[in-house]
Write a structure and sequence with these properties.
binds zinc ion
């Protein structure tokens, strides 16, 4: 769900208005109400259908949605951060936004018309069940996070690309390492590459990320869940912030991200990203290679492929 919200914030959902602004020749009008352009904000909050859905689910807070998508998303995140509210109340907005997108696609591509009330009831039940099965831990979230060190597979249909960069001040080069695994955890590919040296560790992370984004695009992969362990880079990318330190590198990354609208970037702790870390630090003393691909995992990597997600 957070993954979905990331795309909404980044403006990466392919709504009619987005496609038009990219020069694709289609009607920008919302096919549900026919009244306004189908922007992400319209689809998820302002459209009559969205409004009815939010009301059915008892979220009066969105009766008068803000004009800027970012303000509405801030509200959703604020609700999530309010620890006094019940788990259902905190999590439901993620489900509703995701459901509105899903229901919109069903309408457009399968001619399925869902009544907002039916949707709301169906999803309220789903959320209650989900909350029962996954109690949200309010008090010990820090220790909880520290304990989870195992790599986690991406959702069905997605490929996870863990990446990491190594940077040392006096070296003429920097390195990036990456590893691809599917939703069953199966190994797909790993590799490392040397890149021109940069000035700071953050630039090295960004430069490495740009390289793997380009590589995934080149490989023809379109649903990729990138995962790195640099929180600062993840925040800059996900909140559409500017960064003097990254400069043009950030422009390049943003440009390439638009080519992969179904991808996202998440942040994990170092332990979960260990395989990529080992790859970017792997050093071959007498190698003249600038990059290396491993179609099957090399022996020194096997220890970092966790059971049951090994092969
Ligand atoms: Zn509409």
């Amino acid at each position: 769900m957070q993954h979905f919200l990331w795309k909404a914030i980044a403006g990466a959902l392919s709504t009619a208005e987005r496609l038009c602004s990219r020069g694709i020749n289609i009607d920008p009008i919302c096919q549900r109400c026919g009244l306004e352009d189908e922007t992400i904000n319209h689809l998820l909050l302002q459209c009559q259908h969205a409004q009815t859905t939010w009301r059915c689910a008892d979220y009066t807070v969105f009766n008068v949605p803000q004009d800027a998508l970012e303000d509405n998303i801030r509200k959703i995140l604020h609700i999530y951060a309010e620890s006094e509210a019940s788990d259902e109340v905190r999590i439901l907005p993620f489900w509703i936004t995701w459901m509105l997108w899903k229901s919109r696609n069903e309408m457009l591509f399968q001619q399925k018309m869902n009544h907002p009330n039916e949707d709301a009831v169906k999803w309220l039940n789903a959320v209650s069940e989900w909350v029962l099965a996954n109690p949200v831990n309010h008090h010990s979230s820090v220790s909880h996070r520290a304990a989870s060190t195992l790599w986690e597979p991406p959702p069905m249909g997605f490929i996870k690309c863990n990446f990491d960069s190594s940077f040392s001040q006096n070296s003429p080069i920097m390195k990036v390492g990456w590893i691809l695994r599917d939703s069953r955890g199966s190994y797909m590919e790993a590799g490392w590459a040397t890149l021109p040296q940069v000035e700071t560790p953050l630039q090295a992370e960004a430069s490495g990320f740009l390289y793997v984004v380009q590589r995934m695009w080149y490989k023809g992969l379109r649903q990729v869940w990138f995962e790195g362990d640099n929180l600062e880079l993840t925040n800059i990318i996900n909140t559409v912030r500017q960064s003097v330190e990254l400069g043009n590198l950030l422009c390049d990354i943003r440009h390439w991200i638009t080519k992969l609208p179904q991808c996202s970037l998440g942040h994990v702790n170092r332990e979960k990203n260990q395989a990529a870390d080992v790859l970017c630090k792997h050093y071959l003393s007498n190698s003249v290679n600038l990059c290396k691909l491993y179609e099957t995992p090399p022996s020194w990597l096997v220890n970092y492929l966790y059971y049951p997600f090994t092969f």
